[in-house]
Please model this.
Amino acid sequence: MAIKKSNFIHMKMKKIIALLCVIMLFSSCATQMVTRSPAEVKMMTTKQFESDQDIVFKSVISLLQSESYIVDRADKETGLINASKRIENKNANMQRALWGSSKDANTSKAMFYVEEVNETVTEVKITLYEGAESSRSGYWGQVNKDTKEQMIYEPQVYQAWFQSLQAEIERRKALGR
Model:
């Protein structure tokens, strides 16, 4: 009787451990949603600069180009600047051939809104997105592509952009442009 009871307890323990492993696996794979209030997002993504709109607008474009972004759209009248960057995975085809799937590229998008507050102050709003493009082999040689993209919510990322923008504004002011 003691052996049967010990086997029963042993089997129950195995089931509990297996269940805990499954729970840990799914909880570690779950997407963590970052939620911030609109006020928090505005504080993180908005900064005012003591400079006229013309210098700030040109500085944003210069900064984007120095960060290897392609400026897709720049409209000085509305103050909107859209840029993107794509870093290709040169081994994607080989990875797809070997494992059936690959991460094809990392992508980034940057949207700037440059607005004149007055003649000496300009406000800049930045929205940054990061993403990835992947593909997997389907039936009959078909390649299925998947694109994922999400807004960046780390304040330090925006602070770094604003610091670089401030440096570029100061550089342009020193050059008299």
